[in-house]
Amino acid sequence: MTIFLQSLDYQLWHIVVNGPRMPTRTIEGVVSPKPKNEYNDNDFRMLQLNSKAKHVLFCAVRPNEFNRISSCDTAKEIMLVHEYELFLMHDNESISDMFIRFTNIVNSLKNLGKSYSNQELVRKILRCLPRSWTSK
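Predicted structure:
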């Protein structure tokens, strides 16, 4: 996916990894979102790149995964939701390492405004454990 997105436009992968740069303006040292009527060509290009990245990701997933990510606003959020949904504990991975990876995904999603209840998170952790953990 990295190579495919970079081949279309190198900045697409950058937007997926880092999130889009939303147009802002600074007035008297205060940064605020820029009104749409003040967008310039560069602002529109950056927003268009996010839409293009979203389109590529939507086309790359199966229909049942599409239903989970279709409400996401940014390509980065799509990738994080996808990582969350497919999260599994790796072979030979300690529980603490697995939990750190999981927490990083959940915190990144929370920063983008998508949060899960503690009950959902606990269920997800329990489902991602390998069968060897069943008796524990």
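Summary: The first strand starts at residue 24 and ends at 27.
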